[in-house]
Amino acid sequence: MARAGSPRERLVDAVRDNGAPGMGAAIRQARTAEGISLRELGRRVGVSASFISQVELGRATPSIGTLYTIVSELDLSLDSLLATAVTGVPLESGAPTGEAAAAPVGERLTTVGIPGLQRAGTAPDIRVDGVRWERLTVQDDPLVEYLRVTYAAGSESNSVENMMRHAGWEYLHVLTGQMDLQVGFDKDTLQPGDSLSFDSTIPHRISNPYTQDCVSIWAVVGRHGFAHPREIAEQVARLGRHSGGEGFGYGSHYGATGE
């Protein structure tokens, strides 16, 4: 019988029960918790059941596009996999480790450990086909994937014939290097200092055909189907118009009286 709770909660529970799996084992834990067969997951992703099995056993590495599809079908995220990438479970928020944990109290203010603080060099990461994702939060956040992403020279997210699409919205800022990004039929080259946001349901592709690695910061919001705040505001406005605009506004909808 499957565990109660969300797929992400069941994955973390399984990790705590069974040790620290790698990416493949984490995928297997999530798939079995959902009661999905190898054949069915392969059908949804567009690969063979045997390939899924090889990924779960750590004998094969999925392409970036395939990995995105797998985590989407299992209602997971890269955060969920990154949570198991180093220690098997997310680090406790703000917990000091290593030298910081051993330092005398008062020696250095920053050793106290502000909740949510992640020290440089401690981010869990995943590397696939020349692309490296580093999670910039101390634990999995169901609302947003906050990542530092490095596209090595010559790498790409997926082929032109198999562009990615999934729920949510993406926001990115380029730190170093260049990347080519295609969203739908629109294409452009992003350089250091450039920023971009787009609807993730539109087919998209990232590539780095240049000689220097490209490092960027990404935030992916609503991958699991959460409504964008703009959509909520628009819906509230529409409901207000339909009600004649009397006594129904953003504040009153959420119980605020303004008094």
Key traits:
259 residues, three-stranded antiparallel sheet, alpha+beta, 434 Repressor (Amino-terminal Domain), six-stranded antiparallel sheet, 20% strand, disordered C terminus
Structural shape: globular
The level of helicity is 25-40%
Quote the CATH topology of the domain at 1-89.
434 Repressor (Amino-terminal Domain)
Number of helices: 9
Arithmetic mean of pLDDT: 75
Distance between the termini: 51 Å
CATH classification class of the domain at 1-89: Mainly Alpha
> Which structural class do you get from the secondary structure elements?
alpha+beta
H/E series: HHHHHHHEEEEEEEEEHH
Tell me the CATH architecture of the domain at 1-89: Orthogonal Bundle
For the CA atoms, what is the radius of gyration? Answer: 21 Å
Query: Biggest sheet, open or closed, and with what strands and sense?
Result: 6 strands, antiparallel
Architecture overview:
By secondary structure, the protein is α+β, with helices and mostly antiparallel strands. The chain has a domain at 1-89: lambda repressor-like DNA-binding domains (434 Repressor (Amino-terminal Domain)), CATH 1.10.260. 30% of the residues lie in helices and 20% in strands. The strands form two sheets. The chain has a six-stranded antiparallel sheet with strand order 1-2-3-9-4-7. The longest helix is centred in the C-terminal third of the chain and has 14 residues, at 229-242. The termini are far apart. Residues 7-21, 86-110 and 246-259 have low confidence and may be disordered.
